[in-house]
Amino acid sequence: MKETITNPLIKNQVTFIRTARETAGAFTEIEIVLSPGASTLFYYPKFFTETFTILGGELHIEMAGKQPIILYSGTNFKIPPQQLHRFYNPASVAVTFRITVAPGAPGLENALRIICGLVGERLDRGIDAKAGIIPIAIVSQMSGLYFPGTLRLLPSILQLLAKIGKHRGIDKELRTRYCAN
Q: Structurally, how many domains does the chain consist of?
């Protein structure tokens, strides 16, 4: 049975089609239903390629310094490691697409699970004491995604905070709490 998680804040849905463990590390395949108006920040994966396959609707991908590309149902688009980009849905209806990440990215899979879990708990119960900067640092480091501009200074700070979190066992607690796999 495929695992589906939801970010209740922006109402996006992520389904794990094939995980890194299921493919012996060859790739991770996820299906995303991106809500109208939803967007990522500009980011780049340091070590993996992302291949986008559109299943329904239109997905916009903007690469640094270039005009946005509009992907339609049935189209594929590959983004190599280190390529700064973002994706978004300016339409009034959701877009459904798959991203195949190669090689497989178990850290990214767990980061998605933890983010959705933390957001859900914050909305259900108010701000959780564990949902501070250290869990964010751990998730950021775990994901393999990096950010440009002034955010590029964050990795060294986040790396330090992630080490503190690991020393305190927060990383294990987050994986135990949100990552069934």
A: 2
